Amino acid sequence: MENIEPHLQRQKGNGAVERYDVVVVGAGFGGLYALHHLRGMGLSVRVFEGAAGVGGTWWWNRYPGARVDFPGGPFYCYTFSEELVREWDWTETQPDQRSVLAYLNYVADRFDLRRDIQLETWVTDARYDEATQRWTVETSTGARVSAQFVVCAVGSLFAAFKPNIPGLDDFAGECYHTGRWPQEQVFFAGKRVGIIGTGSSGVQAIPEIAKEAAHLIVFQRTPQYSIPARNHPIDPEVVRQARENWAALRAKMTAAQSGSLFEVPERSALDDTPEQRQAVYEALWQKGGLSLLFSSYTDLLTNKDANRTVADFLRGKIRAIVRDPETARKLMPDYYVGTKRPLLDNGYFETFNRDNVTLIDLREDPIVKITPDGVRTAKGEHPLDMLVLATGFDAISGALLRINPKGRGGISLKDKWSTRFDSYLGVTIAGFPNFFMIHGPGSPSVLFNMPLGAELQSQWIGNCVRYLREHGLGAIEATPDAERSWDAEVAEIANRTLFPLTDSWYTGANIPGKPRQFCVHLGGPLYFQHLAEAAAAGFRGFVLEKENPRERSSSMAAAATQ
After folding, report:
1. Cβ atoms of 426 and 443 closer than 8 Å
2. CA-based Rg of the chain, rounded to a whole angstrom?
3. I want to staple 295 with a disulfide (CB 3.0 to 4.6 A). Which of 100, 136, 291, 551 is the partner?
4. Domains and CATH numbers, the chain
5. Which residues of the chain have pLDDT under 50?
Protein backbone atom coordinates (compact mmCIF):
# COMPACT_ATOMS: atom_id res chain seq x y z
CA MET A 1 0.00 0.00 0.00
CA GLU A 2 1.28 3.48 -0.87
CA ASN A 3 2.07 5.68 2.14
CA ILE A 4 -0.81 8.09 2.71
CA GLU A 5 1.43 10.66 4.39
CA PRO A 6 2.65 13.72 2.46
CA HIS A 7 6.11 13.46 0.95
CA LEU A 8 8.31 15.67 3.10
CA GLN A 9 11.76 14.92 1.76
CA ARG A 10 13.61 18.21 1.54
CA GLN A 11 15.19 19.18 -1.76
CA LYS A 12 18.31 21.28 -2.00
CA GLY A 13 17.76 25.02 -2.12
CA ASN A 14 20.03 27.83 -3.23
CA GLY A 15 20.63 29.13 0.30
CA ALA A 16 18.77 32.41 -0.24
CA VAL A 17 16.26 33.45 2.44
CA GLU A 18 13.17 35.24 1.16
CA ARG A 19 11.48 37.69 3.53
CA TYR A 20 7.75 38.20 3.94
CA ASP A 21 5.51 39.78 6.50
CA VAL A 22 3.36 36.66 6.76
CA VAL A 23 3.65 33.01 5.81
CA VAL A 24 0.31 31.18 5.51
CA VAL A 25 0.33 27.38 5.55
CA GLY A 26 -2.53 25.87 3.58
CA ALA A 27 -4.66 27.01 0.63
CA GLY A 28 -8.13 25.81 1.58
CA PHE A 29 -11.04 27.99 2.67
CA GLY A 30 -9.04 29.44 5.58
CA GLY A 31 -5.73 29.97 3.83
CA LEU A 32 -7.17 31.56 0.71
CA TYR A 33 -9.15 34.09 2.70
CA ALA A 34 -6.22 34.82 5.05
CA LEU A 35 -4.10 35.58 1.98
CA HIS A 36 -6.76 37.85 0.49
CA HIS A 37 -7.38 39.72 3.74
CA LEU A 38 -3.78 40.16 4.87
CA ARG A 39 -2.56 41.10 1.41
CA GLY A 40 -5.35 43.67 1.26
CA MET A 41 -3.76 45.30 4.32
CA GLY A 42 -0.59 45.92 2.33
CA LEU A 43 1.32 43.00 3.84
CA SER A 44 3.62 40.74 1.85
CA VAL A 45 2.23 37.20 2.12
CA ARG A 46 3.43 33.81 0.91
CA VAL A 47 1.21 30.71 1.00
CA PHE A 48 2.67 27.21 1.01
CA GLU A 49 0.39 24.36 -0.04
CA GLY A 50 1.42 20.72 -0.33
CA ALA A 51 -1.25 19.78 -2.87
CA ALA A 52 -0.98 20.37 -6.59
CA GLY A 53 -3.92 22.78 -6.46
CA VAL A 54 -5.85 25.04 -4.14
CA GLY A 55 -8.85 23.80 -2.18
CA GLY A 56 -7.53 22.17 0.98
CA THR A 57 -9.80 19.36 2.12
CA TRP A 58 -11.85 19.75 -1.06
CA TRP A 59 -8.76 19.04 -3.16
CA TRP A 60 -7.83 15.89 -1.24
CA ASN A 61 -11.25 14.37 -0.50
CA ARG A 62 -12.36 13.21 -3.95
CA TYR A 63 -13.88 9.92 -2.85
CA PRO A 64 -17.23 8.86 -4.39
CA GLY A 65 -20.17 10.67 -2.81
CA ALA A 66 -18.16 13.47 -1.18
CA ARG A 67 -20.52 16.35 -0.48
CA VAL A 68 -21.01 19.29 1.85
CA ASP A 69 -22.89 18.10 4.94
CA PHE A 70 -23.47 21.60 6.34
CA PRO A 71 -26.34 23.69 4.93
CA GLY A 72 -24.79 24.34 1.56
CA GLY A 73 -25.45 26.34 -1.55
CA PRO A 74 -25.20 30.05 -0.87
CA PHE A 75 -24.46 29.49 2.84
CA TYR A 76 -21.38 27.20 2.83
CA CYS A 77 -19.18 29.69 1.05
CA TYR A 78 -17.33 32.94 1.54
CA THR A 79 -19.48 35.73 2.93
CA PHE A 80 -17.12 38.72 2.77
CA SER A 81 -17.93 39.74 -0.82
CA GLU A 82 -21.47 40.43 -1.98
CA GLU A 83 -20.12 40.56 -5.54
CA LEU A 84 -18.85 37.01 -5.18
CA VAL A 85 -22.20 35.87 -3.78
CA ARG A 86 -23.92 37.32 -6.83
CA GLU A 87 -21.42 35.90 -9.32
CA TRP A 88 -21.31 32.26 -8.30
CA ASP A 89 -24.32 30.06 -9.01
CA TRP A 90 -24.65 27.08 -6.70
CA THR A 91 -26.91 24.40 -8.18
CA GLU A 92 -27.55 21.98 -5.27
CA THR A 93 -28.45 22.24 -1.61
CA GLN A 94 -25.54 19.90 -0.72
CA PRO A 95 -22.83 20.67 -3.30
CA ASP A 96 -20.48 17.86 -4.27
CA GLN A 97 -16.70 17.94 -4.08
CA ARG A 98 -16.24 19.01 -7.69
CA SER A 99 -18.56 21.97 -7.24
CA VAL A 100 -16.82 23.21 -4.10
CA LEU A 101 -13.38 22.78 -5.66
CA ALA A 102 -14.52 24.65 -8.78
CA TYR A 103 -15.76 27.46 -6.53
CA LEU A 104 -12.45 27.72 -4.67
CA ASN A 105 -10.54 27.78 -7.95
CA TYR A 106 -12.83 30.57 -9.13
CA VAL A 107 -12.10 32.50 -5.94
CA ALA A 108 -8.35 32.05 -6.43
CA ASP A 109 -8.63 33.50 -9.93
CA ARG A 110 -11.24 36.14 -9.10
CA PHE A 111 -9.03 37.71 -6.42
CA ASP A 112 -5.69 37.03 -8.14
CA LEU A 113 -4.46 34.83 -5.31
CA ARG A 114 -2.34 32.33 -7.23
CA ARG A 115 0.66 34.66 -7.64
CA ASP A 116 1.32 34.40 -3.89
CA ILE A 117 0.69 30.64 -3.54
CA GLN A 118 3.44 28.04 -3.92
CA LEU A 119 1.91 24.63 -4.62
CA GLU A 120 3.41 21.17 -4.08
CA THR A 121 5.41 22.61 -1.22
CA TRP A 122 5.21 21.17 2.29
CA VAL A 123 6.35 23.13 5.33
CA THR A 124 8.92 20.87 6.99
CA ASP A 125 10.02 23.15 9.84
CA ALA A 126 9.23 26.51 11.45
CA ARG A 127 11.37 28.10 14.17
CA TYR A 128 10.96 31.34 16.07
CA ASP A 129 13.98 33.62 16.62
CA GLU A 130 13.51 35.71 19.74
CA ALA A 131 16.26 38.17 18.77
CA THR A 132 14.72 39.09 15.41
CA GLN A 133 11.09 38.40 16.41
CA ARG A 134 10.68 36.43 13.20
CA TRP A 135 9.97 32.88 12.08
CA THR A 136 12.24 30.89 9.79
CA VAL A 137 10.17 28.49 7.71
CA GLU A 138 11.72 25.61 5.74
CA THR A 139 9.97 23.71 2.99
CA SER A 140 10.19 20.46 1.05
CA THR A 141 11.58 22.37 -1.94
CA GLY A 142 14.62 23.46 0.06
CA ALA A 143 13.49 27.07 0.37
CA ARG A 144 14.09 28.98 3.62
CA VAL A 145 11.73 31.87 4.27
CA SER A 146 11.71 34.51 7.00
CA ALA A 147 8.42 36.01 8.18
CA GLN A 148 7.32 38.05 11.16
CA PHE A 149 4.06 36.11 11.39
CA VAL A 150 2.94 32.56 10.62
CA VAL A 151 -0.72 31.67 10.07
CA CYS A 152 -1.52 27.96 10.07
CA ALA A 153 -4.61 27.21 8.01
CA VAL A 154 -3.83 23.52 7.70
CA GLY A 155 -7.37 22.23 8.21
CA SER A 156 -9.10 20.46 11.07
CA LEU A 157 -9.58 17.29 9.01
CA PHE A 158 -6.38 16.92 7.00
CA ALA A 159 -4.05 14.51 8.84
CA ALA A 160 -5.38 11.22 7.44
CA PHE A 161 -5.31 8.37 9.96
CA LYS A 162 -4.02 5.01 8.80
CA PRO A 163 -4.93 2.39 11.43
CA ASN A 164 -2.30 0.03 12.74
CA ILE A 165 -3.88 -3.17 11.47
CA PRO A 166 -1.49 -6.11 11.16
CA GLY A 167 -0.62 -6.82 7.53
CA LEU A 168 -2.17 -3.65 6.10
CA ASP A 169 0.90 -2.81 4.04
CA ASP A 170 0.96 -6.36 2.65
CA PHE A 171 -2.37 -6.07 0.84
CA ALA A 172 -1.68 -6.78 -2.84
CA GLY A 173 -4.78 -5.15 -4.30
CA GLU A 174 -5.72 -1.52 -4.74
CA CYS A 175 -5.85 0.39 -1.45
CA TYR A 176 -7.07 3.97 -0.97
CA HIS A 177 -7.77 6.29 1.95
CA THR A 178 -10.82 8.49 1.48
CA GLY A 179 -8.80 11.49 2.67
CA ARG A 180 -6.06 10.85 0.07
CA TRP A 181 -8.17 9.78 -2.90
CA PRO A 182 -6.35 9.52 -6.25
CA GLN A 183 -6.69 12.27 -8.82
CA GLU A 184 -7.40 9.72 -11.54
CA GLN A 185 -10.72 7.89 -11.64
CA VAL A 186 -11.03 4.73 -9.55
CA PHE A 187 -13.06 1.91 -11.10
CA PHE A 188 -15.12 -0.46 -8.94
CA ALA A 189 -16.97 -2.43 -11.60
CA GLY A 190 -16.47 -6.19 -11.36
CA LYS A 191 -14.37 -5.90 -8.20
CA ARG A 192 -14.68 -7.22 -4.68
CA VAL A 193 -14.34 -4.11 -2.52
CA GLY A 194 -13.96 -3.81 1.24
CA ILE A 195 -14.34 -0.55 3.14
CA ILE A 196 -13.24 -0.05 6.75
CA GLY A 197 -15.05 2.73 8.59
CA THR A 198 -18.54 4.19 8.63
CA GLY A 199 -17.93 7.81 9.60
CA SER A 200 -18.79 10.72 7.34
CA SER A 201 -16.71 9.66 4.35
CA GLY A 202 -17.73 6.02 4.69
CA VAL A 203 -21.43 6.82 4.89
CA GLN A 204 -21.13 9.01 1.80
CA ALA A 205 -18.97 6.58 -0.21
CA ILE A 206 -20.67 3.27 0.57
CA PRO A 207 -23.88 3.85 -1.46
CA GLU A 208 -21.87 5.02 -4.48
CA ILE A 209 -19.36 2.17 -4.41
CA ALA A 210 -22.18 -0.39 -3.99
CA LYS A 211 -23.77 0.78 -7.24
CA GLU A 212 -20.71 -0.36 -9.23
CA ALA A 213 -18.84 -3.04 -7.27
CA ALA A 214 -19.41 -6.72 -7.88
CA HIS A 215 -19.56 -7.04 -4.11
CA LEU A 216 -18.97 -4.61 -1.25
CA ILE A 217 -18.09 -5.66 2.30
CA VAL A 218 -18.57 -2.94 4.92
CA PHE A 219 -16.33 -3.44 7.95
CA GLN A 220 -18.18 -1.40 10.56
CA ARG A 221 -16.26 -0.20 13.61
CA THR A 222 -19.06 1.91 15.14
CA PRO A 223 -22.73 2.02 14.08
CA GLN A 224 -23.85 5.51 13.14
CA TYR A 225 -26.93 7.67 13.20
CA SER A 226 -27.46 9.21 9.81
CA ILE A 227 -30.13 11.51 8.38
CA PRO A 228 -31.15 11.74 4.72
CA ALA A 229 -29.52 14.75 3.06
CA ARG A 230 -32.43 15.11 0.61
CA ASN A 231 -30.06 16.86 -1.76
CA HIS A 232 -31.97 18.71 -4.48
CA PRO A 233 -31.61 21.64 -6.87
CA ILE A 234 -31.56 25.00 -5.13
CA ASP A 235 -34.73 27.03 -5.43
CA PRO A 236 -33.82 30.11 -7.52
CA GLU A 237 -36.04 32.18 -5.23
CA VAL A 238 -33.88 31.22 -2.23
CA VAL A 239 -30.79 32.38 -4.12
CA ARG A 240 -32.47 35.62 -5.19
CA GLN A 241 -33.55 36.48 -1.67
CA ALA A 242 -30.12 35.62 -0.27
CA ARG A 243 -28.42 37.93 -2.72
CA GLU A 244 -30.82 40.77 -2.05
CA ASN A 245 -30.52 40.46 1.73
CA TRP A 246 -26.95 39.27 2.05
CA ALA A 247 -25.75 41.73 4.68
CA ALA A 248 -28.63 40.84 6.99
CA LEU A 249 -28.20 37.10 6.40
CA ARG A 250 -24.48 37.31 7.10
CA ALA A 251 -25.16 39.13 10.36
CA LYS A 252 -27.73 36.49 11.28
CA MET A 253 -25.30 33.65 10.56
CA THR A 254 -22.54 35.34 12.56
CA ALA A 255 -24.89 35.64 15.55
CA ALA A 256 -26.13 32.04 15.31
CA GLN A 257 -24.86 29.19 17.44
CA SER A 258 -23.60 27.17 14.48
CA GLY A 259 -23.12 30.00 12.00
CA SER A 260 -26.16 28.82 10.04
CA LEU A 261 -29.72 29.92 9.38
CA PHE A 262 -31.45 27.11 11.25
CA GLU A 263 -34.62 28.16 13.03
CA VAL A 264 -33.73 27.94 16.72
CA PRO A 265 -36.23 25.91 18.77
CA GLU A 266 -37.40 27.08 22.19
CA ARG A 267 -39.11 23.92 23.48
CA SER A 268 -37.68 20.94 25.31
CA ALA A 269 -38.28 17.54 23.74
CA LEU A 270 -39.83 16.58 27.07
CA ASP A 271 -42.47 19.30 26.81
CA ASP A 272 -44.25 17.41 24.03
CA THR A 273 -46.15 14.14 24.11
CA PRO A 274 -44.63 11.13 22.33
CA GLU A 275 -47.11 11.65 19.50
CA GLN A 276 -46.16 15.32 19.14
CA ARG A 277 -42.44 14.50 19.15
CA GLN A 278 -42.95 11.82 16.53
CA ALA A 279 -44.70 14.31 14.29
CA VAL A 280 -41.92 16.89 14.74
CA TYR A 281 -39.17 14.38 14.03
CA GLU A 282 -40.98 12.85 11.07
CA ALA A 283 -41.53 16.22 9.40
CA LEU A 284 -37.86 17.14 9.76
CA TRP A 285 -36.74 13.66 8.63
CA GLN A 286 -38.74 14.12 5.46
CA LYS A 287 -37.25 17.60 4.99
CA GLY A 288 -33.75 16.18 5.33
CA GLY A 289 -30.51 17.75 6.44
CA LEU A 290 -29.45 18.74 9.94
CA SER A 291 -32.71 20.48 10.83
CA LEU A 292 -33.75 17.32 12.70
CA LEU A 293 -31.02 18.03 15.25
CA PHE A 294 -30.88 21.82 15.22
CA SER A 295 -34.49 22.89 14.63
CA SER A 296 -36.53 20.33 16.58
CA TYR A 297 -35.88 20.91 20.29
CA THR A 298 -33.49 23.01 22.30
CA ASP A 299 -32.12 20.36 24.66
CA LEU A 300 -31.16 17.39 22.49
CA LEU A 301 -27.45 17.93 23.18
CA THR A 302 -27.79 18.84 26.87
CA ASN A 303 -30.42 16.47 28.30
CA LYS A 304 -29.96 12.69 28.23
CA ASP A 305 -33.67 11.95 28.33
CA ALA A 306 -34.38 14.40 25.52
CA ASN A 307 -31.58 12.89 23.45
CA ARG A 308 -33.01 9.40 23.92
CA THR A 309 -36.22 10.48 22.22
CA VAL A 310 -34.45 11.37 18.97
CA ALA A 311 -32.16 8.32 19.29
CA ASP A 312 -35.22 6.06 19.52
CA PHE A 313 -36.73 7.77 16.50
CA LEU A 314 -33.60 7.29 14.40
CA ARG A 315 -33.16 3.67 15.45
CA GLY A 316 -36.78 3.11 14.45
CA LYS A 317 -35.97 4.46 10.99
CA ILE A 318 -33.09 1.99 10.65
CA ARG A 319 -35.43 -0.90 11.52
CA ALA A 320 -37.99 0.34 9.01
CA ILE A 321 -35.48 0.79 6.17
CA VAL A 322 -33.22 -2.27 6.56
CA ARG A 323 -35.15 -5.41 5.65
CA ASP A 324 -32.93 -8.00 7.36
CA PRO A 325 -33.49 -7.78 11.15
CA GLU A 326 -30.00 -9.09 11.97
CA THR A 327 -28.34 -6.47 9.74
CA ALA A 328 -30.54 -3.79 11.25
CA ARG A 329 -29.48 -4.91 14.72
CA LYS A 330 -25.82 -4.55 13.82
CA LEU A 331 -26.49 -1.03 12.49
CA MET A 332 -28.02 0.20 15.78
CA PRO A 333 -26.00 3.02 17.39
CA ASP A 334 -25.94 3.40 21.17
CA TYR A 335 -24.25 6.77 21.75
CA TYR A 336 -25.94 10.14 22.26
CA VAL A 337 -27.17 11.55 18.95
CA GLY A 338 -25.05 14.47 17.73
CA THR A 339 -22.07 13.81 20.01
CA LYS A 340 -20.22 12.27 17.08
CA ARG A 341 -20.11 14.18 13.83
CA PRO A 342 -23.71 14.40 12.56
CA LEU A 343 -23.98 12.48 9.30
CA LEU A 344 -26.06 13.09 6.21
CA ASP A 345 -26.49 10.39 3.61
CA ASN A 346 -27.93 9.65 0.20
CA GLY A 347 -29.30 6.14 0.66
CA TYR A 348 -26.87 4.73 3.25
CA PHE A 349 -29.20 2.39 5.12
CA GLU A 350 -31.02 1.41 1.93
CA THR A 351 -27.67 0.16 0.58
CA PHE A 352 -27.74 -2.76 3.04
CA ASN A 353 -30.81 -4.13 1.24
CA ARG A 354 -28.70 -4.77 -1.87
CA ASP A 355 -27.70 -8.35 -2.66
CA ASN A 356 -24.10 -7.28 -3.36
CA VAL A 357 -23.50 -5.69 0.08
CA THR A 358 -22.39 -7.47 3.25
CA LEU A 359 -22.03 -5.93 6.71
CA ILE A 360 -19.32 -7.16 9.10
CA ASP A 361 -19.69 -5.77 12.63
CA LEU A 362 -16.13 -5.55 13.93
CA ARG A 363 -17.33 -5.44 17.52
CA GLU A 364 -18.55 -9.02 17.10
CA ASP A 365 -16.14 -10.21 14.41
CA PRO A 366 -12.89 -8.19 14.71
CA ILE A 367 -10.17 -7.98 12.07
CA VAL A 368 -7.30 -10.35 12.84
CA LYS A 369 -5.05 -9.16 10.01
CA ILE A 370 -4.93 -7.95 6.45
CA THR A 371 -3.54 -10.53 4.07
CA PRO A 372 -2.25 -10.00 0.52
CA ASP A 373 -5.61 -11.32 -0.70
CA GLY A 374 -8.07 -9.58 1.61
CA VAL A 375 -9.22 -9.27 5.21
CA ARG A 376 -9.18 -12.02 7.81
CA THR A 377 -11.62 -11.60 10.68
CA ALA A 378 -12.11 -13.84 13.69
CA LYS A 379 -14.85 -15.72 11.83
CA GLY A 380 -13.34 -16.09 8.39
CA GLU A 381 -11.55 -14.88 5.26
CA HIS A 382 -12.87 -12.12 2.99
CA PRO A 383 -11.09 -12.06 -0.39
CA LEU A 384 -10.85 -8.55 -1.88
CA ASP A 385 -9.58 -6.80 -4.99
CA MET A 386 -9.72 -3.34 -3.39
CA LEU A 387 -9.61 -1.97 0.14
CA VAL A 388 -10.90 1.49 1.03
CA LEU A 389 -9.86 3.06 4.33
CA ALA A 390 -12.56 5.41 5.55
CA THR A 391 -10.71 5.60 8.85
CA GLY A 392 -10.81 9.33 9.41
CA PHE A 393 -8.30 11.86 10.63
CA ASP A 394 -6.15 12.94 13.53
CA ALA A 395 -8.57 15.83 13.84
CA ILE A 396 -8.07 19.46 14.87
CA SER A 397 -4.51 19.11 16.25
CA GLY A 398 -2.99 16.49 13.93
CA ALA A 399 -2.00 18.65 10.97
CA LEU A 400 -0.44 21.28 13.25
CA LEU A 401 1.62 18.65 15.05
CA ARG A 402 2.97 17.32 11.77
CA ILE A 403 4.55 20.72 11.15
CA ASN A 404 5.69 20.78 14.80
CA PRO A 405 6.81 24.44 14.99
CA LYS A 406 9.45 25.44 17.56
CA GLY A 407 8.57 28.46 19.68
CA ARG A 408 10.28 30.51 22.38
CA GLY A 409 13.31 28.75 23.80
CA GLY A 410 13.10 26.12 21.07
CA ILE A 411 10.11 24.35 22.63
CA SER A 412 8.35 22.17 20.07
CA LEU A 413 4.60 22.02 19.68
CA LYS A 414 4.78 18.26 20.24
CA ASP A 415 6.29 18.90 23.67
CA LYS A 416 3.87 21.72 24.42
CA TRP A 417 0.88 19.56 23.46
CA SER A 418 2.16 16.25 24.83
CA THR A 419 -0.67 16.01 27.40
CA ARG A 420 -3.11 18.84 26.48
CA PHE A 421 -3.95 20.91 23.41
CA ASP A 422 -3.73 24.27 25.13
CA SER A 423 -4.49 27.52 23.32
CA TYR A 424 -5.74 31.02 23.98
CA LEU A 425 -8.85 32.01 22.04
CA GLY A 426 -8.30 28.99 19.79
CA VAL A 427 -6.04 31.22 17.68
CA THR A 428 -2.76 31.54 19.62
CA ILE A 429 -0.48 29.41 21.81
CA ALA A 430 1.56 30.51 24.82
CA GLY A 431 5.26 30.15 24.02
CA PHE A 432 4.70 30.69 20.28
CA PRO A 433 4.89 34.43 19.54
CA ASN A 434 3.46 35.78 16.27
CA PHE A 435 1.99 32.35 15.50
CA PHE A 436 -1.70 32.07 14.67
CA MET A 437 -4.09 29.22 13.90
CA ILE A 438 -7.33 29.14 11.93
CA HIS A 439 -9.74 26.53 13.35
CA GLY A 440 -7.24 25.53 16.02
CA PRO A 441 -7.99 23.66 19.26
CA GLY A 442 -10.20 25.77 21.49
CA SER A 443 -12.03 27.47 18.61
CA PRO A 444 -15.53 26.63 17.24
CA SER A 445 -13.82 25.01 14.20
CA VAL A 446 -15.80 21.96 13.04
CA LEU A 447 -19.01 22.86 14.90
CA PHE A 448 -19.46 26.25 13.26
CA ASN A 449 -19.87 27.34 9.64
CA MET A 450 -16.21 26.84 8.74
CA PRO A 451 -15.82 29.31 5.85
CA LEU A 452 -17.47 32.03 7.93
CA GLY A 453 -15.45 31.12 11.01
CA ALA A 454 -12.22 31.28 8.98
CA GLU A 455 -13.12 34.76 7.75
CA LEU A 456 -13.83 36.07 11.24
CA GLN A 457 -10.64 34.57 12.68
CA SER A 458 -8.55 35.91 9.78
CA GLN A 459 -9.99 39.37 10.30
CA TRP A 460 -9.06 39.22 13.98
CA ILE A 461 -5.52 38.14 13.06
CA GLY A 462 -5.33 41.05 10.63
CA ASN A 463 -6.48 43.48 13.33
CA CYS A 464 -3.82 42.07 15.64
CA VAL A 465 -1.06 42.59 13.06
CA ARG A 466 -2.31 46.12 12.38
CA TYR A 467 -2.28 46.92 16.09
CA LEU A 468 1.33 45.77 16.41
CA ARG A 469 2.42 47.80 13.40
CA GLU A 470 0.64 50.94 14.55
CA HIS A 471 2.14 50.74 18.05
CA GLY A 472 5.72 49.90 17.13
CA LEU A 473 5.43 46.37 18.48
CA GLY A 474 7.37 43.40 17.18
CA ALA A 475 5.73 40.41 18.83
CA ILE A 476 2.58 39.23 20.55
CA GLU A 477 2.32 36.12 22.70
CA ALA A 478 -0.48 34.64 24.80
CA THR A 479 0.19 34.38 28.52
CA PRO A 480 0.05 31.00 30.27
CA ASP A 481 -2.63 32.36 32.64
CA ALA A 482 -4.83 33.44 29.74
CA GLU A 483 -4.35 30.05 28.14
CA ARG A 484 -5.34 28.20 31.31
CA SER A 485 -8.44 30.35 31.72
CA TRP A 486 -9.42 29.74 28.12
CA ASP A 487 -8.99 25.99 28.40
CA ALA A 488 -11.16 26.04 31.52
CA GLU A 489 -13.90 27.93 29.66
CA VAL A 490 -13.86 25.50 26.72
CA ALA A 491 -14.19 22.57 29.13
CA GLU A 492 -16.84 24.25 31.27
CA ILE A 493 -19.10 24.93 28.29
CA ALA A 494 -18.56 21.43 26.92
CA ASN A 495 -19.40 19.87 30.27
CA ARG A 496 -22.87 21.43 30.11
CA THR A 497 -23.49 19.19 27.10
CA LEU A 498 -23.41 15.49 26.25
CA PHE A 499 -20.38 15.80 23.95
CA PRO A 500 -17.71 14.71 26.47
CA LEU A 501 -19.67 11.55 27.28
CA THR A 502 -18.97 9.98 23.87
CA ASP A 503 -15.73 8.64 22.45
CA SER A 504 -15.28 10.51 19.18
CA TRP A 505 -12.69 12.37 17.16
CA TYR A 506 -13.97 15.52 18.90
CA THR A 507 -12.30 14.11 22.03
CA GLY A 508 -9.35 12.43 20.28
CA ALA A 509 -10.64 8.94 21.08
CA ASN A 510 -10.10 7.69 17.50
CA ILE A 511 -6.30 8.03 17.70
CA PRO A 512 -4.40 5.57 19.91
CA GLY A 513 -2.38 7.40 22.56
CA LYS A 514 -3.83 10.82 21.83
CA PRO A 515 -4.70 12.88 24.93
CA ARG A 516 -8.43 12.87 25.58
CA GLN A 517 -9.75 16.43 25.47
CA PHE A 518 -12.82 18.04 23.97
CA CYS A 519 -11.19 20.71 21.81
CA VAL A 520 -14.14 22.69 20.40
CA HIS A 521 -15.46 25.96 21.87
CA LEU A 522 -19.25 25.54 21.86
CA GLY A 523 -20.08 29.17 22.56
CA GLY A 524 -20.88 30.13 18.97
CA PRO A 525 -21.28 33.93 18.93
CA LEU A 526 -19.87 34.08 22.47
CA TYR A 527 -16.55 32.93 21.06
CA PHE A 528 -16.37 35.77 18.55
CA GLN A 529 -17.45 38.19 21.26
CA HIS A 530 -14.41 37.07 23.28
CA LEU A 531 -12.17 37.73 20.29
CA ALA A 532 -13.56 41.23 19.89
CA GLU A 533 -13.31 42.04 23.59
CA ALA A 534 -9.69 40.90 23.83
CA ALA A 535 -8.75 43.13 20.90
CA ALA A 536 -10.74 46.11 22.21
CA ALA A 537 -8.90 45.85 25.54
CA GLY A 538 -5.51 46.25 23.86
CA PHE A 539 -5.19 42.49 23.34
CA ARG A 540 -5.90 41.41 26.85
CA GLY A 541 -4.26 38.13 27.79
CA PHE A 542 -1.17 38.78 25.69
CA VAL A 543 2.37 39.99 26.26
CA LEU A 544 3.31 42.64 23.69
CA GLU A 545 6.97 43.26 22.86
CA LYS A 546 8.44 46.39 21.35
CA GLU A 547 9.94 45.96 17.92
CA ASN A 548 13.66 45.25 17.78
CA PRO A 549 15.22 48.46 16.33
CA ARG A 550 17.67 46.49 14.21
CA GLU A 551 14.85 44.42 12.80
CA ARG A 552 12.94 47.60 11.95
CA SER A 553 15.94 48.84 9.94
CA SER A 554 16.26 45.49 8.20
CA SER A 555 12.54 45.46 7.33
CA MET A 556 12.70 48.98 5.93
CA ALA A 557 15.70 48.08 3.79
CA ALA A 558 13.97 44.96 2.48
CA ALA A 559 10.83 46.95 1.67
CA ALA A 560 12.87 49.53 -0.23
CA THR A 561 14.28 46.83 -2.55
CA GLN A 562 10.93 45.24 -3.32
Report:
1. yes
2. 24
3. 291
4. 17-54+113-159+394-561 (3.50.50.60)
5. 1-2, 6-12, 553, 555-562
